[in-house]
Write a structure and sequence with these properties.
Two copies of one chain form a homodimer. By secondary structure, chain A is α+β, with helices and mostly antiparallel strands. Chain A has 17 helices and 23 strands. In chain A, the strands form five sheets. The first copy, chain A, has an eight-stranded mixed sheet with strand order 6-9-10-22-21-20-17-11, sandwiched between helices. The radius of gyration of chain A is 30 Å and the shape is globular.
């Protein structure tokens, strides 16, 4: 950091080195720690850039300043002036960038005092005695002072800087899209904003700038990017925030491979600058079908193997009813899993029911073949299974037999769980993959209609366009789209698609989704207009910034990568938001608040 | 722009030059204009970067392609392949960057057709036959295609890029602050967002990240910047948008002069890169008192003179009652204004009443002295007035006599009006000034209490701190603050202050503003907590991005510097926002809509 020199400081607390010895300097910051060694007072002075040891020696600073220094306490804000000197023999601290020097203070100015704060910012979140998260959120201004949190904010800034520089150099313009937009109740739930000037009308906060960025392409803007807040009023989930940030990108006159190529370049740049890691390119592509078949997931974690093996045909040759009658039978090999106890494998079977399985068949591979209850049924095919899966003595085989959707979900999750339990996921390794050729539509059994796998503006593959006129389920479900997701270590960090740029195609897709002409006009009339009056081929992508920073910093809690996050129930504990507002504000917004009816407690006595 | 090569293009439409002759190229874009010269079809092909002339000659492209080319119409999107050749003798277009060449097409691909659009994107807003703004907003995707609008978006992108690069190099981190925050009904009106999970509670969209950026400083973040959307639910005004963008800056361990110095550097950089203009620094400072006294405004336009002259003492020596009894009498000299007719000067007097004046005395300066109705009263002091003001033969003197507030308002506005009418404001000149030493508080006669001139977190000047304990109006009103506004050509483009960093001072200011202890705790408890537990000296500034781009592009309408603006009534005409929403959404938000009661029309017959 270039030091900004002011009357408060000539250097930051992370800046001074041996070569600065003899200089007179002024530093400001927080009292990080305090030691009173009889005659000498030692302070570790802290700012964003680091710690510097300050010594108050009455022989140097005089008795009055020394007396003041003895009053200092943790988290007071001070400014000192002094001379840079070497640390004594054996007192050099190699873990500190400024560890070779100390500053012999001659002056001390107390800028702010502080009573003992609720906690000191000297812990890491993983520490056993770290304050509870709720307390950290309440006093976020203290929590932000921690080195770990500062480093995260620094990386977050760095990542957005790289995104802007990289895309800016390629000719992308950052263009702002509105926050007060129209509600489109098809997707996730909108946050709504009552209009004061138009009673009975509401804005919605954007779930993404999707339509606006497409309109920018129709408007000839060619290459757009924006790092932008998006809003989804979803039910609480540990890894979600109601407001989240994405890098939003759209470009014209390109096809899928152009975007994929440029975004790979961006990821390479980010990983190189932030972590010093070279991502090898091209990043492999994997068809959606293949990802589901081999990993039971459309965001496969490729840091480890444990692929799903399809033994349906073999299984149908056995007398085991569960296998014989299942539409699909697959298995995974858990390396070294034979040492699991019966209680542990029973627990696995129970766990699998959370994912819709009726049960989980397991068998241990031993020298004699298979050894559990189901062994007798499947021993006739044991040799073939072992050959097909490469299972070795001491491994555990886990089978799922059900409809494909359930088999993939159960074994996909089991694969992740076993990798977690067996610590097969190295945190320092990054396995990227582009998942492509998604199905464009899925049939919603409950709603009895199709929905878009991504969103209704996603272009089908050129060769599947004619299938849009089909009406049978098999044809519709075989339509693949020009969507692509970028997956890192099993997390989807970005996703996008080539969009539909022709009005007739867009209308066909809307119809297929059950949106009739009148509804199309009402909800998406402006988009159809835009596509009608000369839309270029275009497509784009959005990256989740919060998730990317979590991966780069190896942080599991989304709230730890956001300066002022909300709790799972959407509360800002520090400010006290959301909060009741006064009647005048409600009236101006043309709304009335409806409180849930709560019965008064029955009168006692 | 670095061309991104794809199957759709090898170059942009603004890229080819004489030196590219002979190259085979592929271009894509919109049909900007079409001429069919018998055998040859000429197209101006347009993209964000410019126009390129395309020639379809049946001898080169074959009859089939030529036939296709004859079907092309304005705003169709096409892709062509061809060879770069020189334009014929005398056909070079020096006004076009690509004017020396044309592309002889051999292939043509029609990417999108278009019926005749509502308007063609080939006008400038100032053109007499430009479409009405409402129509432009409804079809914004067409309006955005205009070269003028593209240039504005390009400059807007450029300005934000410079801001980030400049501040990034100084060690500022861009840190995101929340959009779903707590309502603080003291300032302008908040937009509110009902909470689904906490019935009866509401978020507010931020009017600015003021408190969050201060909390970041208390959190040790040292140097923060953010280009951020802010929201104010104000009544409609031509030059305001409900959502607007600001560059928000805050830094620790600095004083007023440090921020002013660094922000000057930023302005220099922006003006240099965008306009090639060197702003001379240091930018002059002007006390608030001086700005009011000389220009009748705290955002003086310094591109021209016409200062206010205080003739109160002289005026009190006359027998003219209006002058004699007024607390203040000032005048301005309108150069060459004597040629105004009686009707014109009467109109001025009428106009002045809009600003609270009881009237406006005017007199023309002629060889014989003054010549209007009031001349006889003021002729005794004519010589002294002429000497004091430097008025010359043929000038017009305009006098206002009233309370200082009204005198300054009327003459300040008159000064701007006369400069407009006389075209004294050169659009290519930029006069910057820092206005400093504002009064910290003003007494609100209606509410019978003090309010902050800027905001309640603004630090008073050090030498005025002790006056916070005063209780008489004169003492309170003499407290000056560490606020500063940067004014360019009479527009406030930025403003900020050093903040209060001590809890006791903040509490005194809250008390002075009539916020009692309980209300302080309820509304600002977290801020007081933060100031209590070790706050560094800090301060910052915010620049209005929309306004800055208006000045840089010499554009008068704020909607013309925003990609998707709202009308004065807050409507997005294109998308149809705000709009009614369905009952399920209202119920989920725990609110009910209140429609204004409209009486049914009385039955006729």
């Amino acid at each position: 950091m270039p030091a900004i020199v002011s009357r408060y400081r000539s250097h930051t607390c992370g800046q001074l080195r041996s070569s600065d010895q003899g200089q007179r300097v002024r530093l400001s910051g927080w009292v990080h720690s305090y030691r009173d060694h009889g005659g000498l007072v030692f302070i570790d002075l802290r700012d964003r850039e680091g710690l510097t040891q300050i010594v108050f020696d009455p022989d140097t600073c005089g008795q009055a300043v020394h007396d003041e220094a003895r009053k200092l306490r943790s988290e007071w804000v001070i400014s000192i002036e002094g001379a840079v000197g070497p640390r004594g023999q054996g007192l050099v601290n190699p873990r500190l960038a400024t560890g070779e020097i100390e500053v012999h203070a001659s002056q001390l100015e107390i800028l702010s005092q502080s009573p003992t704060p609720p906690f000191l910012p000297d812990f890491e979140v993983a520490d056993a005695d770290a304050p509870k998260e709720e307390r950290r959120l309440q006093y976020r201004f203290l929590d932000l002072r921690r080195a770990e949190m500062q480093q995260t904010l620094r990386v977050r800034h760095q990542v957005t800087r790289i995104m802007r520089e990289y895309l800016g150099a390629l000719g992308f313009w950052e263009i702002e899209t509105p926050f007060l937009t129209k509600s489109t109740p098809e997707g996730a739930r909108d946050f709504i904003v009552p209009s004061r000037l138009q009673a009975g009308s509401f804005y919605a906060l954007p779930q993404s700038p999707q339509l606006f960025k497409q309109l920018l392409m129709v408007g000839g803007c060619d290459k757009y990017m924006q790092i932008v807040r998006c809003f989804r009023d979803e039910d609480p989930r540990a890894d979600r925030q109601a407001e989240f940030t994405q890098l939003d990108v759209e470009m014209s006159f390109i096809d899928r491979q152009d975007i994929i190529g440029h975004m790979e370049g961006l990821l390479v740049q980010i990983w190189k600058e932030v972590l010093g890691i070279e991502i090898s390119t091209p990043i492999p592509h994997m068809d959606y079908d293949q990802a589901m078949n081999l990993y039971g997931s459309d965001r496969p974690d490729l840091r480890f193997g444990m692929q799903l093996h399809d033994i349906t045909e073999l299984a149908h040759t056995t007398d085991f009813g569960v296998f014989k009658n299942a539409p699909m039978v697959k298995c995974i090999v858990v390396p070294d899993g034979a040492k699991m106890t019966r209680a542990q494998t029973d627990a696995l079977a129970l766990w699998s029911k959370e994912y819709g399985a009726k049960g989980l068949a397991v068998t241990k591979v031993s020298g004699e073949g298979f050894d559990t209850g189901i062994a007798k049924f499947i021993n006739p095919i044991a040799g073939q299974i072992i050959e097909m899966t490469g299972a070795k003595n001491g491994d555990l085989l886990c089978f799922a037999a059900d409809k494909p959707k359930i088999v993939h979900r159960v074994l996909g999750e089991l694969r992740l769980k076993m990798a977690r339990d067996l610590q097969l996921k190295p945190s320092s390794q990054f396995a990227f993959v582009w998942v492509v050729n998604f199905p464009a539509f899925e049939y919603d059994e409950q709603e009895k209609r199709y929905s878009s796998t991504h969103h209704p503006f996603t272009a089908p593959l050129d060769e599947d366009l004619k299938k849009l006129d089909g009406r049978d389920q098999e044809t519709i479900e075989s339509i693949r789209s020009k969507a692509y997701d970028i997956v890192c270590n099993g997390s989807e960090i970005g996703g996008g698609s080539i969009r539909i740029h022709r009005m007739d195609t867009q209308q066909k897709v809307f119809s297929l989704l059950g949106i009739d002409d009148a509804a199309q006009k009402l909800k998406f009339g402006f988009l159809l207009d835009a596509l009608q009056f000369g839309a270029p081929p275009h497509g784009g992508i959005a990256f989740g910034l919060d998730r990317m920073v979590m991966i780069l910093r190896n942080i599991g809690n989304i709230r730890d990568v956001i300066a002022f996050p909300k709790t799972q129930s959407g509360a800002d504990i520090m400010c006290g938001a959301p909060s009741p507002i006064d009647d005048r504000q409600l009236k101006e917004a043309n709304i009335r608040s409806i409180m849930p009816v709560i019965k008064p407690p029955a009168a006692s006595e």
